[in-house]
Every structure is written in C-alpha cells, then in structure tokens.
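Subject: Protein entry, chain in single-letter code together with its fold tokens

Category: Structural biology, sequence-to-fold work with a learned token vocabulary.

Notation: Tokens come from a learned vocabulary of local backbone shapes, not from coordinates.

Start of record: The labelled sequence and token lines come straight after this line.
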Amino acid sequence: MNYHAAIFDMDGLLLDTERVCMRIFKEACATLELPFYEDIYLSIIGRNPAGIEQIFRLAYEADYEHLHDEWRKNYNAVVKHQAIPVKPGVIELLKWLKSKNIPIAVATSTVNDVAKKKLALAGLDQYFDCLTTGCEVKHGKPDPEIYLLAASRLDVDPTLCLAFEDSNNGVHSAFAAGMITYQIPDLVEPCDEVRALGHKIRPSMHRVLEELQ
C-alpha cells in the first residue's frame, strides 16, 4: 500500500466508548420511562450530533428534549472526568506510525471540546497532529466531508490516507473520501452493503499493525 498519512475515528475505534454511551442512554430511557430501541440506537453510531438528533427526534418525538438532556448530562459526567479504556492494539499502532514519521489525525463525529477531553484523559492526544470534529462540518458521517477536511489539514491527498473506522457510517464516509479504509468492528458488524465496498475488515488493531509491518 502507498500511504502518506493515517486518520482515525475515535469512539469505538480508539476508545471503548460506545458501550459506555449505550449503557447511559438505556439508563436515561429507564429514568424517563421511555422505550429503548436497540436497532435505532445502533443506527446512530458514527453520526455527528445533528445526525443523531434527526434520527432520535423521529423515534421519540415530543420526549426527545428531555431524553437528550438526561442522556447528555450523565454521559458528560463520565467522559469529561474519567479516562475511557483504550482499545487493544491502539497505542502500539500509533507508536509504530509515529516511528515511521506518518502524520496522524482524528476524524470524530464528537464535538470538539468533548473529543479533546476524551483523548487527553486517555493519554492519546500526544499522538495526533490534528483533530477534526463533528461540529466543524456541515455534513456528518456517512458523508465524506470530515475525512476530506482531515486530509486537507494534514496536507495529504485523501487517496494517500489510511482511514480506520469501527462503524458502518464511518466506513461509508472514509470510503467515499477515496481513502484506504480499515474497519475494526465494535458494537455493529459490517452489513452486507458495507462489505460489498471491498474495504479491509480486521478483528483488531493488533492485526492491522501486523499487516502494515
């Protein structure tokens, strides 16, 4: 492979955040005596706040505002003060890319201040040359805008970037940007439509590192 940069999603890929986030959402539903729709919840993984709001407003209608406030309050109380566990193999891969002088960016749907806090608490902020977040783009994942912006900030052609994702929405985004795309599934397995893209699906970051070495 010919690549000059690497761009990483964050939640569910670098950090084991998705399980924490879903647990807190389920607890918010229980507190407000609202149903938890697992299929709808899984469909929002990888999307930016605007995309998440659009889907949840359809599902929860008039209850959305109260649910969002309860969810976000409890979620921020955790992720802004506690280090989320780093996924296996992440630090080894980041250190190896750094040793090869490969520029590295994050392209996350999370808003900027929360993303910075998560990376800092986990001790990962030192590895990245730039951070691109969901509040900086008009069109969130699965649109390619966030990956194209990250590549532009690294000053590298998108086709010469490795992209690492866990979600189907994220894979669509990176693939549409023309990047060499790896998927390391977390809560959601690749659907048939995503598998048909022909990108690289691997079980762990350890396997990715072995392949790149």
Strands lie at 5-8, 104-108, 130-133, 161-165, 180-183, 200-201. Residues 159 and 178 are 5 Å apart (CA to CA). The chain is about 45% helix and 10% strand.
